[in-house]
Amino acid sequence: MANKILLEVVTPDKLLLSKEVDVVVATGVDGEFGVLHGHVPFLASLAIGEMRFKDGNDTEYAAIAGGFAEVTGEKVTILAEAAELAREIDIDRAQRARERAQQRVEKSRAEEMDYARAEASMQRAIMRLKVAGRTGGLG
């Protein structure tokens, strides 16, 4: 595992990913952070956002719906409320979810319903669509 770091992405339902990679970049509540092998240990709260990881010349993306990241010098563990790899996101389903979420946001504003839940739903749907369309490098 020379110069590689083990990335594990875990949701309440399953182990989504366990892979040795060169670099991990995730979205914390305080901003984006990157991790290489030998990184100083830390714990971070994750926002609804994109995670990407690179193994050689291959970069992959995932949509992360909040949670925590635990970083050691040898391993990054993502404990996510929900997570999907970009290649597994059904774009049509994600677009329908975004439309439903938009309707809930508009309805919650008009009827003073639970706006925060509706907005979080909308953010998750938008992130899934963004990640589903990703290809290319870490930039």
Give short descriptive properties of this protein.
8-stranded mixed beta sheet, elongated, CF(1), 45% strand, 2 helices, alpha+beta, cell membrane, ATP_synth_F1_esu_C, single chain, ATP Synthase, domain 1, 139 residues, Single alpha-helices involved in coiled-coils or other helix-helix interfaces
Spell out the blueprint of helices and strands:
Layout: E1 5-10, E2 15-21, E3 23-28, E4 31-36, E5 42-55, E6 58-71, E7 75-80, E8 83-85, H1 91-111, H2 115-132
Parallel strand pairs: 1-7
Antiparallel strand pairs: 1-2, 3-4, 3-5, 5-6, 6-7, 6-8
Protein name: ATP synthase epsilon chain
Domain ATP synthase epsilon subunit C-terminal: 88-133
Membrane topology: Peripheral membrane protein
Walk me through the structure.
Its main location: membrane. This protein has 139 residues and is an alpha+beta fold. It has helices spanning 91-111, 115-132; strands at residues 5-10, 15-21, 23-28, 31-36, 42-55, 58-71, 75-80, 83-85. Helix 1 runs antiparallel to helix 2 (115-132). The protein is built from 2 helices and 8 strands. It has 2 domains: 5-87, Sandwich (ATP Synthase, domain 1), CATH 2.60.15; 90-132, Single alpha-helices involved in coiled-coils or other helix-helix interfaces (Up-down Bundle). Strands 1, 2, 3, 4, 5, 6, 7 and 8 form an 8-stranded mixed β-sheet that branches.
